[in-house]
């Protein structure tokens, strides 16, 4: 154990020396001399909030892509972003349970902690520390124009500061690990552009440090719509539970939700998203689960009316989601295992984060106090 302590100490001290040896020249205009851009190894980072229940749209639009990236040998980091989950009113007991439930869900969907880093955001405090530095570089008008803030602030009277600045924390999440690629839906694209802006600004002021993150737009993100309002996307936050197909729904619940999905008064199955959004939504679900084109599906079900087609689709959805639901329940019966998965993920994430954080501390001029940070980390590792 003591040998491990000394090895870790030497590693961190060497990292500190590297950071302190960085040659940066301060100009009279408070900007640093330009350093040639360097290439960064590809690293994929994304996060998911432990709020609500993961539904079919989340799975097909995002999580399934995560599993594919992981299985393709990419360097991937997935974070359960619990700090983002408290920007709006919440229940602390529910949050604690949701973190475990989301962990179980991700594992049940195929995330492998041996191939990916899966961790809980708040267990690596450097997310918040780096966020503060970026907060000192971003302007208020820049944040005011972020789409998520405008959308959510319209629904509440007293706007918490966290809701205003959470895109900055999102930037810190990505750049703390020098993430180069970020899988997101189109509604998050401006937040990735903000991350790119802040990376560029930090680099211009303090010297080359961060890559310019690139958004990977989920091909299927947003394709699955609400079963009750096919003009809107399927959402975890919807108050109407019949609007979504949750991964934890029992087979009879899934059947009932599909049967009651909004369609129209035409019995024929045709793919016309503009004229028949409800039927188009069901066909998209069918296509994304099976891999068949909507044209192929329409030919296969040309003898069915919408009522009959819903029963067929319900069977397909149940066949897909029921094994996942069972695995989620199995994992939820082992909370200590879920906690261990998150702890191991946090250690892996922290090993990356601390190196980058020491580099940032040195460049922004903190310098003093770095050794106490190292001391704390050594103490934590020594006592684990």
Rg is 23 Å
Quote the average pLDDT. 87
In whole angstroms, how far apart are the ends? 10 Å
The biggest beta sheet is recorded as: 3 strands, parallel
**SS content category:** mainly alpha
Range of strand content: 5-15%
Q: Total helix count?
A: 14
Q: Order of strands across the biggest sheet?
A: 1-2-3
> Which of globular, elongated, flat, extended, rod-shaped describes the shape?
globular
Count of beta strands: 5
Report low-confidence residues grouped into runs of 5 or more.
11-35
Fraction of helical residues: 40-55%
SSE order, one letter for each helix or strand: HEHEHEHHHHEHEHHHHHH
Description:
Helices cover 54% and strands 6% of the residues. With 384 residues, it is mainly alpha-helical. The strands form two sheets. The chain has a three-stranded parallel β-sheet with strand order 1-2-3. Strands 4-5 form a two-stranded parallel ribbon. Helix 1 (2-20) packs antiparallel against helix 14 (370-382). The radius of gyration is 23 Å and the shape is globular. It starts with a helix and ends with a helix.
Notable characteristics:
384 residues; mainly alpha; three-stranded parallel β-sheet; two-stranded parallel sheet; 5 strands; 54% helix
Helix-strand blueprint:
Layout: H1 2-20, E1 44-48, H2 56-71, E2 76-80, H3 92-109, E3 117-120, H4 126-135, H5 140-144, H6 147-153, H7 161-175, E4 181-184, H8 189-206, E5 214-217, H9 251-259, H10 277-290, H11 294-300, H12 306-332, H13 335-364, H14 370-382
Parallel strand pairs: 1-2, 2-3, 4-5
Helix pairs in contact: 1-13, 1-14, 3-12, 4-7, 7-8, 9-12, 10-12
